[in-house]
Write a structure and sequence with these properties.
Elements lengths: L20 E4 L6 H13 L8 H4 L13 H9 L8 E4 L14 E6 L2 H13 L3 H6 L4 H8 L4 H9 L17 H13 L8 E5 H6 L1 H12 L7 H8 L2 H6 L36 H14 L3 H9 L7
Parallel strand pairs: 1-2, 1-3, 3-4
Length: about 300
């Protein structure tokens, strides 16, 4: 099982500019929120945008079957040179995301147990019409979207996930846990103290919304005015984003809706994994793959808990 519309090699052809920002966040770990934070800081507070994916492109997304990578590369290259750009990616440094000293990176991490239970609900809320557009069969849709329990979904879908096009044979130990979480932290951890890399933890962003927005603004060099700050704080709040969730569902980038309404901005809760189906058995399985892929226990601890970034 794979997602044919996610194309990590696409970002290799991105013609980056000095000062571009890459928002590198694992799945269901605060990506959309961080995209909106960037946009609001860049604009000084904008309530009128239609689609965050038009403002902050996803550098791994093919919008429709048959679309060439060159088409998207040309579109991104044509973005105004005098407006700061940011791109979303779920990749960490590796084969498809090459770390560059002249870019800025915002890396947001979240307790992977919370992210994984949210990922199940997220997959279930993909539009079946969008899946059909990409040639995904009804049988495969049912396989991904109609599992009675989270534990069943984890064992039958998440662990059997393979990156690459449909039919890909590449086996990945841990499936989604490795592709979307462990490889990400393993790639970023050695770069965590680089001056152009900002590590944030989802739980700390939730706990201190205002402080987190100011920290990101300082990192990016944005200096909103006293009049702009209240708007930025309002438009990056969960309450505002939930009330305007149609702006965060990639509605304009594909020929038909990718997501069902409400799938992108759901709960944004911290410490709620068990309520969404996380079990002790799945938690232990996830941790075992973390220890297999990630060499530094401090990196695993940070991903689960946040806290101070250790030197190194």
């Amino acid at each position: 099982m794979s997602f044919p519309f996610i194309c990590p090699p696409l970002q290799l052809g991105l013609d980056t500019r000095d000062g571009d920002t890459m928002i590198s966040v694992p799945a269901k770990s605060g990506t959309t929120w961080t995209m909106n934070i960037f946009h609001q800081l860049r604009t000084g507070g904008d309530a009128d945008f239609a689609d965050i994916y038009a403002e902050v492109p996803w550098a791994e997304l093919l919008e429709k079957p048959g679309q060439t990578m060159e088409e998207l590369h040309a579109r991104w290259k044509a973005l105004p040179a005098d407006v700061p750009r940011a791109f979303k990616t779920h990749a960490g440094p590796g084969d498809f995301l090459h770390y560059k000293e002249n870019l800025k990176y915002i890396v947001v991490l979240r307790n992977p147990e919370e992210a994984m239970v949210s990922f199940k609900i997220f997959v279930e809320n993909h539009s079946r019409e969008f899946f059909k557009l990409w040639g995904i069969s009804e049988e495969l849709m049912d396989h991904m979207q109609k599992r009675e329990t989270f534990e069943e979904w984890y064992n039958e879908v998440a662990l059997k996930f393979k990156p690459g096009p449909p039919g890909a044979e590449q086996e990945v130990p841990g499936g989604m846990t490795t592709v979307f979480f462990w490889s990400h932290i393993a790639g970023w951890w050695p770069l965590r103290n680089k001056p152009n890399v900002l590590f944030m933890h989802f739980s700390e962003m939730k706990k201190d919304h205002e402080g987190s927005i100011h920290k990101i603004a300082d990192f990016l060099g944005f200096k909103p005015t006293a009049e702009e700050w209240p708007k930025i704080m309002e438009y990056t709040s969960f309450k505002w984003m939930k009330a305007h969730q149609e702006k965060f569902e990639a509605a304009s980038v594909a020929p038909l809706p990718i997501m069902n309404r409400g799938a992108m901005v759901r709960k944004g809760a911290v410490g709620d994994a068990k309520a969404d189906g996380m079990t002790a058995e799945v938690a232990a399985s996830m941790k075992s793959f973390a220890k297999m892929i990630v060499q530094d226990d401090a990196a695993i601890k940070y991903m689960y808990e946040g806290g101070p970034i250790p030197p190194g």
